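Forwarding the complex inputs:
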Amino acid sequence: MDLVDQRLLNDFQRDFPLTARPYAELGEKLGINEDEVIARLDRLSRGGSVSRVGAVFRPHAVGASTLAALAVPPEELERVAALVNAYPEVNHNYQREHRLNLWFVVTASSAQAVRAVLDDISGRTGLDVLDLPLLEPFHIDLGFDLKWS
Amino acid sequence: MELSDSDHALISVIASGLPLVERPYRAVGEMVGMDEVEVLARIEALRDSGVIRRFGVIVRHHELGFRANAMAVWDIPDTEVGEVGHRLAGSDQVTLCYRRPRRPPVWPYNLFCMIHGRDRATVEETIRGLIQCHGLETYSHTVLFSTRRFKQTGARYGRPLAAEVGHG
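Prediction (whole assembly, two chains):
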């Protein structure tokens, strides 16, 4: 990963150009051409360091979501994590160090649709699902400073 | 801001990512039945109205060496949680900061912060610093490090692309 990659990852996390050829605009700032910007973003996406070039929405401005947790018996964790992962509505799913050891985010078109996924997971696993919907966001999302220096 | 069916289709596409082609907004337009100018105007309107909070390169912390990811949670009295939440959210080290409900007796915490760092020791140090700096010593808290990531993708809003357009 060279300096251009680092800048590509750090400097364009917000205010992405809304112009017909945004990658050309990035290229001008980085001193490389449009094709190279596209090739680099493609490589960084394949490598996994770029999730996507896209939008993050204000919570609940579009659809509904919640943070949910399960206390899964350790020997069941693998199976339950796979079961949870299989829902397209689940976009994050992590094991964490706690009795409540599986934490996931469910996003869907409505609160009822979110509830239906939680109920389904509860029904299929026989576990109580802790439902912790967002009540108030405090941060302004400015992206993530990679602090390369 | 009132969202139309075509906005929902557009939102679905830009949540999952712009295509890596010379004219990405034209390509998005082809998927949702808009022309390039309309796509640009709608994204700008969604951004200006705050529906889009951020639009750009979305990175994965873990792959970039930020291997430690902690969810630090506190139980802060309801009368103070707003003020404390805003102060924590203003710290550089805090990636996300939310108030969520307590669920006693299983879950007594109402303030959630996500903190990412290169290693566990750094994140633990950061959390100690936050507690000290914001005078949180007296509040009950815990830290849940993640030990495994099973899934991390963009949100899907459950609207099939085109399928619901025009049903409005």
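Chain A has five helices and six strands.
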